[in-house]
């Protein structure tokens, strides 16, 4: 044996341990990089990337005819992916499932499986094509925007990464188990990720806390409820975290018993298996009180009905279900992906920056490609222009040449043309000699010069580059915008606390200086008409009760600040106090910034999609968002409206079916009244649209309100204490965005306009002056006047001036009518 080894120089002696170790490392890196983990830039594993590229090469776009899945799989394994057809088809199927993908990348036709765990039909029976989203992932791939590498047998080229305009890794998430590591990235809402990316472009030094004002958390395609924000924060900060996801349920009341209905299940939960599990636990008496379980789901959505026995309590049964079944699951977030051929755990900020860097590279390479193409075409057109200017001489030169080579060389020598230009002249058809064709060549050349200038400017300017990336992201957001599916609750224990608190009527008072309290409604027993009423609360000398309403303890109060930040507070979180107590400062109940001022306080019983929240800013911007956008309650607040640097919020109102029109008044005495339909609903973090344009410099919005009936009266007040009541119909109805009409005739004696409120004769008007004085006026004493008038003196402020106005309860308090309709409505 030793003689054989010594005579063969190709055989080497190696330690078997070293050989196994080296082979295993090679295998593990192959699995990590080449199979199991996604790329941090396009968010795709190799198999998904190869499927999309193969479909692109086959021409199976979003508007093309469907093609057999077997044909697509055949192309993938034959050209790019040297693995089994089952693995490829399974990956294709998953990309077509709306319960697996937040934004489907494959448009499937046929049976592609179900949330009950049913398998897809065989690939010979199904058909597929790309979606518009996958087209955006492949957009510009033909413009040398990404590197191509050899396929497994070196016969073809495939993309190393896709140019993706969509932040796919975060939008669709990813999960996979490699050798010694795993990834589990949850899906997110596209709108939120795009807003975070745009903010990061504008503010490169942004911190995680800033970005979480846009990205609330995961958004699963199956909906559900995430309990606890801490796990999300930890995952975004470190790359690892655990979140608790519950099924979304509601209780239906029958005559004799309750029915629990499951509307949404946690992500990756098999619904059929969940129904079997519940039925089994009920049969074995592990969970008491369940009479029957039925799956009534259809194409409209999930509906699993759990009928309870007569004496069963739905809350107790529901808690047992969450504890014992897959109605509550834990999702372990691991933000692990491949970057520079190496696996790494990333933070949210790092993933967003990696995507932006990828987009910058793609846009730069695309611009270079288009610039070179434009220059090449301009070079040819320059030759054709020379040819047209010397056409007779060129024709003679060509006719005198013995062959094409001699003609080309003659052109190059005589006119200093390049070989490409000379060939283009030789290839030119005689019809290009007509006057119209000559003009086309000249026009095309001038357009190309402009395009070359534009492309060159992009490559020289970081600002222009960022603007292009931002604009493309906005286009993606507009194209694929969707509502949030997964609700995020602030913390896990808050739900249990609310279950223990009875939902009963309570009176909430909010003072101008920010003191709040609640008093049980029963404390205000009804008095006979003419009674003196009961004191609703003492205040400091420089304070007064501004908001006063009846709500239930489970209702939510929305506090909106001048910075556009919105904070929530459950009514039961407000300390209960006696009728004569001052209350507690609201800054001790919500985490409001030191430089923020509460501009609007609104209560709501629900976050129904039939309602909207309308915002009014100082610069005349009006924004309307669906109220359901603000239902994820947390005390640290969220961004409710994006404000310009020199802008701030003036007020906000809840809009329901009773609101017909919007009224905005300015400091310089102008106003505009327009239909509420002029403002369409937009996303939570959007900026809004122009409600009023200012006729004069240094003007700004002083106040705004809503109108339900044009016979309603509006009260406008100026700095010098002049005011008037005017019917809404006197202000001409027009479209939003105009300069409006005169709201109040202003003179040096009146001063500028300071505010507008709806007239309610059951309330008083409170005026605050620049020196801190509070002046209360009975609204019934204020006279009506026409639109283009100054009004009458409401209060005499002499050298002082009014700075703000507000409605407040009469000193003879309306609590005596609390059980009737004598109190403000929750959305007043």
TrEMBL record:
Keywords: ATP-binding, Coiled coil, Cytoplasm, DNA-binding, Isomerase, Nucleotide-binding, Topoisomerase. The keyword Transferase does not apply. GO terms for biological process: DNA topological change; DNA-templated DNA replication. It is found in: Cytoplasm. It is an enzyme of class 5 (isomerase). It catalyses: ATP-dependent breakage, passage and rejoining of double-stranded DNA. It comes from the Bacteria. A motif (GyrA-box) lies at residues 527-533. The active site is at 125 (o-(5'-phospho-dna)-tyrosine intermediate). Residues 37-500 form the Topo IIA-type catalytic domain. PROSITE patterns: TOPO_IIA. Residues 809-828 are annotated as: Disordered. Residues 438-479 form a coiled coil. Its EC number is 5.6.2.2. One of its GO terms (cellular component) is chromosome. SMART domains: TOP4c (SM00434). Belongs to the type II topoisomerase GyrA/ParC subunit family. Few gyrases are as efficient as E.coli at forming negative supercoils. Not all organisms have 2 type II topoisomerases; in organisms with a single type II topoisomerase this enzyme also has to decatenate newly replicated chromosomes. Heterotetramer composed of ParC and ParE. This is DNA gyrase subunit A. It comes from Wolinella succinogenes (strain ATCC 29543 / DSM 1740 / CCUG 13145 / JCM 31913 / LMG 7466 / NCTC 11488 / FDC 602W) (Vibrio succinogenes). The gene is gyrA.
